Amino acid sequence: MIPMVAGVMPVFVLIALGYGLRKSDFLPDATWRPIEKLSINFMYPGFLIPSIWGADMSGGGAGAAAGAAVAAVIIVAIGTFAAKPFMKIDGPGYTSVFQGTIRWNSFVFLPVIQAAFGEKGLALAAVMIASIIPVTNILCVAVLARWGADQRGMRPLALIRAMLANPILLACLIGLALNFARVPFIPGVTETLKLLGSAALPTGLIIAGAGLSFAEVARRRVTIAGVSFVKLIIMPPLMWGLCILFGGDHLAQGVAMLCGAAPGAAAAYLLARQMGGDAPLMAGIIALTMVISALMIPLLLFIYHLT
């Protein structure tokens, strides 16, 4: 148990390093966006494609974990939608609340899984990502198109184009296609992808830390605390319980549990800026969920270890 929790600690040390680098101006602000672009477009696809390509889809673990993640997201999305009439918040603010409850940070999730469960856990995590990213992106874009500041809506074809422009989603689709077609690993190609992928996890953590902003947390603490409660107190046991219900083994349960405990996604902030959401509120949600996640993940691993 202690080695498992100790293995997770470097994840949050690297996040803190990224935050410190940004705050200290060690790297100019203008450098962070190109680093993030490199990571999202090349490093993360380099990790995801071979991970999904070589994942065992025949076992019950992958299907149960992926099904639990998708089902939990849909349940929480319906609950957040049903609660909207009772929220004293404008449309753009609601879009950030919605994104905050269902989107999660794969930059943090994957290194945590690697530290806690190793390569077998990473394979399951990759399958979960391939299943959940299309669902969360479609739901969040639809909500922003309806309640964002512009409220211009989005045609179905434009929505599909926006989805396919996401390099993470595209990498998941490529990995799934190669897996389902039973294409064997290609010498040279697979090694190149894995080499790129080896840089994805530490780079992603530093980027996640650099993007944190706590300016809004104190000003809108009730809203942000409420979103954080749903995201990190309700979602982890919900995903865990659904995974058990769907017949997932112990490893699949642990991966599903940690998926639920991942903090808010930095991509949600970018989407809020692009589509008229409340970007400052989104930044505050991401920051607070990151801090709480650092406390919740060791606690959940302790509980998981006892089961």
From TrEMBL:
Similarity field: Belongs to the auxin efflux carrier (TC 2.A.69) family.
Compartments it resides in: Cell membrane
Protein name: AEC family transporter
Bilayer topology term: Multi-pass membrane protein
UniProt xrefs under Gene3D superfamilies: 1.20.1530.20
Transmembrane residue ranges: 38-55, 62-83, 122-145, 157-181, 193-215, 222-248, 254-272, 279-304
Entry keywords, A to Z: Cell membrane, Membrane, Transmembrane, Transmembrane helix, Transport
GO CC aspect terms: plasma membrane
Native source organism of the sequence: Brevundimonas goettingensis
Gene Ontology biological process terms, A to Z: transmembrane transport
InterPro entries in alphabetical order: Mem_transp_PIN-like, Na+/solute_symporter_sf
Superkingdom as given in the UniProt entry: Bacteria
Entry keyword annotation includes Translocase: no
